[in-house]
Design goal:
Chains B, D: Its cofactor is FAD. The complex is a heterotetramer, with 2 copies of chain A (about 400 residues) and 2 copies of chain B (about 350 residues). Chain A has 11 helices and 8 strands. Chain A has about 400 residues and is an alpha+beta fold. Chain A has 3 domains: about 80 residues, no CATH class; about 110 residues, Beta Barrel (Butyryl-CoA Dehydrogenase, subunit A, domain 2), CATH 2.40.110.10; about 140 residues, Butyryl-CoA Dehydrogenase, subunit A, domain 3, CATH 1.20.140. In chain B, helix 7 runs antiparallel to helix 8, helix 7 runs antiparallel to helix 10 and helix 8 runs antiparallel to helix 9. The chains are: A alpha+beta (about 400), B alpha+beta (about 350).
Chain lengths: ~400, ~350, ~400, ~350
């Protein structure tokens, strides 16, 4: 057991850092440190292309598909250095982290050839269509329908919380293909072109005034019959496999963002004198401790990533960071005081800390609410009885 | 032993609850949020038709008499709908003028404030440059400051009335997180302010009014956040069950009620204590402000959480509650400060 | 709405106070401020007698049974003054607060004549037999059996958490009198003499080293056929009615004890300098606020006591005070520091604050755990769906 | 990236977990609680048969080498059974002697401590009267102080060895809430103490040892409190259902695991950081002590609560966990103090 990385890994880190810094202080200085998911999308696509040209866009993938076969440690290191260098949010993170790995694992050779290059080089941006208005926590309660008409699937229904849909080229959709089926049975996993008349995207404005999420409506939207992954009716297995790809390698990069947020709070406290307030100091210390434990929890989890064993650190990680960040938002506002409630300009647009406070309320909801997380921890981690469904 | 509403108080409560429920609708509040955070039509009906703007103010000057208990009943009902109204100005500035103003000052301002003809705002100005009655500097975070016609400003040495149209006054409005009560900066460039006759009385009335008003708003908002979340939990089905049937969900709602009931005791303890001139009044107002603000924030945060995804959309009203709750936390002293006052009262001097 | 009491009520307060103080500074000075439920039981019985002689033992009861027909306000006032004067814990509080009111409400004239005088004057101490090893939170899951044999009930089974059983003369027992019945049906409410061979009491030692609770075993224990309240099989209704007698009038007296505990913590902080610690000051302030809100919550609840409406203040009061006191115990220990972990003598016996810390852990359990309280609040107070039983 | 146990560490963990589970039974611990809080037979087997008392101590003096990670593995396993052992003395006094003692001091004490022939205890003596190497005054709250043969005492200026049988030393034992580790007062009347050669190294080793040992005990205790409560929740039926099927109950257990996993990261972060001489070591030990102590207390409190009535009886073991947890909260600096150290490390000077 040891804290750090091996010498070879540190060498890899130096290589990542050097390249990223040269780019983000050079050709891509304009998008260095860019916040949010919405702005400068064309430049961020250019950036994906530049990453791909240098085999940095999908380093965990096999070399034949543009990757480097990178180890988990290397992926962690790249994520850290990417964050440290001020890399902008990856425009195609759903393609890179979810769609691509799913196609790699379950797709046909034709599908790989068709989709993977565009994912790797950012020319094809992806979004995901899981949640529906009546399938929030209950993901399997899908009502969007797909029927095969000749050599095409015809899709009707509505997805919600489709982040990035407004600039995506492709969407993967879990749809009910067997009339009358319920829950996880009878679903099919389809890959659909967003650029067609049957697909309409409407942004959902959030409490911070921004709109990162969308509703996506399908009205006789179509895709070729071979656009499915797996077999018809088998979509749930594919979708669940896909969720499993979120192995947390991006976690340590994400934590660097948290680090910046906490540092900004400390700086604000030093400016307004609250750094001398014993109660605030306790809360800052708790936040610092929580952040450090997040790092070492992630390292424990990733050090075990190849083990089949259910890992407590992995099971608890989501609720841990989401709760930590929600609390950090409250601390930020308490430190800023009323100044934090005033926007910088005339628009309802927020600087980093108040925005984090507002947006942070969603951290404990999306990707499985804290309540769902606790069910999962209790049932899978502790072997407690499952919560009964009401419709069984 | 009658720590319960009188029949008259029950009647006032029913009237104002119905009034705000019917009139302070989401649609109207959202329209006000795009403007200056005041639903002027609502304010006019409240002042003139309902005639309740004078509650807690002397009848001689157009007020309705009664006291802070009745004022709290009104603020609770307004807070329950996150109504976009300058009620806080009545609780602070009008109370300060009524308590510390000369007869002339009262006669000039109170009738206008009670009728809704003028809007008032108040703030403390510790740190401002004060020379005699000439004030210079920026008064920050004035609630509804951009809409106010008159300001009451206090510090440890005095209390003053400043008209918005006085020479040297300029006001900058700010886009504020809680758009139902935007904050403004009032800049004073050597403004000749009008001193209130009894600064101490004005200061106490302003503080008590602010803390009771915010506490009562918080109570109303917290209760309504609970009510709406309970209603949603009986409607929304996940995994084939009403989400309100999940025990963890139920328990969180129960915890909200536990704190809300304490907040209710706090608001009316504070209001009664001030009305009765009780020795406990200072302890009560600090207790109420800190406890009620925390309760509201907890309940509004849970309202978002327990609504799931829809809860953090702009379209749903949960964020109105949440942002009002957040603003109350910091306004007129945050929780730590109020609790430190409580500690000082019971243990002696500040740490 | 007003904070205080009427002039007449204050006059009654003065009368209570004068009498109590004269006694507790006079003949009964030896038991003034006596902590716990176990010590000096004979003197505490004498004290009950003295109370009864002066019609102070059961003031809420009708005059014919030794009471004063006191209003709720008067009962509250008496409880406050009793606590203020340092009255010892009432040896017969179960008789006075539970058994007596039940007999008054549901008993026959013979039963009233037989039992009420002994309860009123403390010559007959009562305890209650509700809980069983398998009926903790699930009170209706009673297994103790009663069968009618000739003109006697014969009782077999085990009760637990029977506080005061070790010096009680009488016990009321909820027993299953209908073979094969389940849950709240088929139970009978019996009043039994503790002084008989078929009743055995074993003390349960608690985590503080003291033993206020007992297990009570019934092995062919007997009572006359007419020892029941209500009718056979109707015991659950009687028992539930009995629980409803806990109207909280003793609450404000109990709060005076809490006041003393908090004052002792403040005094300890002043002694060791933690009164200057900003974090401790916040916690003391929170405790103070909580205590005050408890008082005004109780006054709200009692001011409504005649209303049929379900009162939120009443529903939430138990969890409120139990949680407050558990937190107070933690604050006490944090203020005392390691000194609080050292007993005064050689025995495992604790001074007031550490004892409160230890014993306070039971406050959130007995009389309905915090979890059960939250169910009740959610179901009765908020109208949420009931928690399903597993055996229905 | 190898923040996971090596195969050797896994083996040590399995060995000590089995050892304490089999031997540190409730019955034996309770017998020790009636005596001086040490199960001497257990201590003897641990030191001699298992041969693990030397973990983290130099091989030259009878130690087993290895480091604080391995020590933490042992303390975690011992803490899981609330074993009545003077392990903390090894973590503090023996570590201090190893780090700051002269060769002679090490040669004299370490072999005896490793073999179990002698028991050690340590405490800081800020506020005591120190004149050269002559110590006078009462050393309070010495863990297992009444059973110790040797004390290591430190303050800002020095570090000393004091033998129990030295002239002027007298020890008063106290009935202590946690009877598995009674506190004693060691009274020094002009005692000629033996200075450790490198006081700074001794002080750091003592503190790091104390904080890591207590953190690891807390981790083990918290995990075991969770395990036993989970087991009970699957056995106990109320209202016709396993109580572990109630969602509120499940969620509370889940919350325990969330904190325990963080505590686990904290313990091994701190132990690694000390072993590796990392820059993060001070931050890590303060973080670990405060976080793990809080986690244990929360879990042990929940253990009582979730067992219902039986949980607060003397007969059930829950109170052993609860009292150990409570004692760890205060021992060698409470949570507020450790967090203040963290704040000072990241923000600069103390408030």
């Amino acid at each position: 057991m040891k804290l750090g990385f091996s010498q070879a890994e540190e060498q890899f880190r130096a290589e990542c850092a050097a390249w990223l810094q040269s780019q983000l202080n050079g050709d891509f200085a304009d998008i260095k440190g860019l916040p949010g998911m919405n702005s400068m999308i064309e430049r961020r696509k250019d950036w994906e292309q530049r990453l791909a040209e240098n085999r940095w866009s999908v380093i965990g993938w096999p070399e034949e598909w543009g990757g480097r076969n990178a180890t988990i440690a290397q992926q962690v290191i790249f994520a850290e250095e990417y964050a440290r260098a001020g890399g902008p949010n990856r425009a195609n993170h759903i393609g890179v982290e979810l769609a691509g790995p799913t196609i790699l694992a379950f797709g046909t050779e034709e599908q790989k050839a068709k989709f993977l290059p565009g994912i790797a080089n950012g020319t094809q941006i992806w979004c995901q269509g899981y949640s529906e208005p009546n399938a929030g926590s209950d993901l399997a309660n899908v009502r969007t329908k797909a029927r095969l008409e000749g050599d095409e699937w015809v899709v009707n229904g509505q997805k919600v919380w489709t982040s990035l849909a407004h600039y995506s080229d492709w969407i993967f959709v879990v749809a009910r293909s067997e009339e009358g089926s319920k829950g996880p049975k009878g679903l099919t996993f389809l890959m659909m072109d967003m650029h067609q008349p049957g697909v309409e995207v409407r942004p959902i404005e959030q409490i911070n005034g921004d709109a990162e999420f969308n509703e996506t409506f399908f009205e006789d939207a179509r895709c070729p019959a071979d656009s499915l992954i797996g077999t018809p009716g088998d979509g749930w297995r594919v979708a669940m496999g896909l969720l499993a790809f979120e192995r947390g390698v991006s976690t340590l990069g994400q934590q660097m963002g948290f680090r910046n947020e906490l540092d900004a709070i400390i700086a604000a406290a030093k400016t307004n004198g609250l750094d001398k307030d014993a109660v605030i100091r306790q809360r800052i210390a708790k936040a610092e401790i929580g952040l450090r434990l997040m790092r070492y929890g992630a390292l424990r989890m990733l050090s075990h990533a190849d083990s089949a064993q259910i890992d407590g650190a992995a099971l608890t990680y989501k609720i841990q960071w989401a709760t930590w960040r929600r609390d950090l938002g409250e601390l930020a506002m308490d430190v800023l005081g009323q100044a934090g409630e005033i926007a910088e300009g005339d628009a309802y647009e927020w600087s980093a800390l108040p925005n984090m406070f507002l947006f942070g309320r969603s951290d404990t909801i999306y990707g499985g609410t804290n309540q769902i997380q606790r069910n999962i921890i209790a049932e899978r981690g502790l072997g407690l009885p499952r919560e009964p469904r009401g419709d069984k | 032993m009658e720590f319960a509403f009188t029949d008259e108080q029950v009647m006032i409560a029913e009237t104002v609850q119905a009034f705000f429920k019917d009139n302070a609708t989401s649609e109207r509040t959202r329209a006000a949020m795009k403007a200056d955070g005041i639903d002027r039509e609502l304010w006019a009906s409240f002042c003139t038709e309902l005639g309740l703007a004078g509650v807690g103010l002397p009848e001689d000057f157009g007020g309705a008499g009664l006291g802070m208990v009745e004022f709290a009943i009104i603020a609770e009902a307004a807070g329950a709908q996150v109504a976009a109204l300058p009620l806080l100005g009545l609780a602070t500035a009008a109370q300060a003028i009524a308590a510390g103003g000369s007869e002339e000052q009262k006669a000039e301002w109170l009738p206008k404030l009670v009728s809704g003809e003028a809007i008032a705002a108040a703030q403390s100005i510790y740190g401002l440059s004060v020379s005699g009655n000439t004030l210079t500097g920026d008064v920050q975070f004035v609630p509804h400051g951009a809409s106010a016609d008159v300001f009451v400003l206090i510090n440890a040495d005095g209390a003053w009335i400043v008209r918005k149209d006085a020479p040297g006054v300029s006001v900058t409005t700010h886009t504020t997180m809680d758009q139902t009560r935007p904050l403004a900066t009032v800049s004073l460039a050597g403004v000749a302010a009008e001193p209130l006759a009894d600064a101490g009385a004005a200061r106490d009335a302003l503080h008590n009014g602010a803390w009771i008003c915010l506490s009562a708003e918080a109570l109303g908002g917290a209760q309504e956040a609970l009510n709406r979340t309970v209603a949603y939990s009986l409607e929304r089905v996940q995994f084939g069950r009403q989400i309100g049937s999940y025990q963890a969900y139920k328990h969180r709602l129960a915890d909200m009620l536990v704190d809300i009931e304490q907040a209710r005791s706090a608001v009316y303890w504070a209001a009664c204590a001030v009305d009765e001139g009780s020795d406990e009044a200072r302890l009560a107002v600090h207790s109420a402000k800190s406890f009620c603000a925390d309760t509201y924030f907890m309940c509004a945060g849970n309202m978002i959480q327990l609504h799931g995804g829809i809860g953090f959309t702009w379209e749903h009203d949960a964020h109105l509650f949440f942002k009002r709750a957040r603003s109350i936390l910091s306004m007129y002293g945050n929780g730590d400060w109020h609790r430190e006052q409580v500690a000082a009262l019971i243990m002696g001097e500040a740490a």
